[in-house]
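Dear colleague,

Thank you for sharing your sequence with our group. We've completed the structure prediction you requested, and as agreed, I am returning the results in plain text so they can be pasted directly into your records. Please verify that the sequence below matches your submission; if there's any discrepancy, let me know and we will rerun it promptly.
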Amino acid sequence: MSRTRGSGLLRQVMGPRRGRARVCAAYRRGPRPAAREARTRAEDRRESVPLVGVAFDVVERDSGIGGGILAGALAYRLFFFLLPLGLVAVGALGVVTAATGRSAESLGEATGLGSLVTASVANAIEDEASWYALLVGVPLLVWVSSGLLRVLARVSTASPGA
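Please find the predicted structure tokens below.
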């Protein structure tokens, strides 16, 4: 039984397969005529319509400083900052709940936290794991915060005049 590559429906929607050489040749030829015409019209309106000029300036400045790479680095560091921050928050709420004698549910309602966080705090109190969460979370939070601050400093210096 011979094995065919790709389904018939996919070929109908996507068209015939393109080899690497054909894709590279298309890239070397540049954008299609309709795209070139649209860019030419937009550049012609750049001076007459201020909003078009601002859009071009923003895109040129963003690509000049590597805005996509900077945004990716910032998002990466923010994600890893939120993980130990959540651990410290759960640990701190567990310690506060144990110290005040209030239930985790009442403390969650008072602080406006969701039921998932409240359940985590209740489990941490039962196991006395809130201290361990703080002991692990605080050093991690400090370490990750230094990386986040480095990225924020680079992002702010990468865009002069901002």
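Summary note from our side: Helices lie at 8-14, 20-29, 33-44, 50-65, 67-100, 104-111, 115-127, 130-158.

Kind regards,
the structure core
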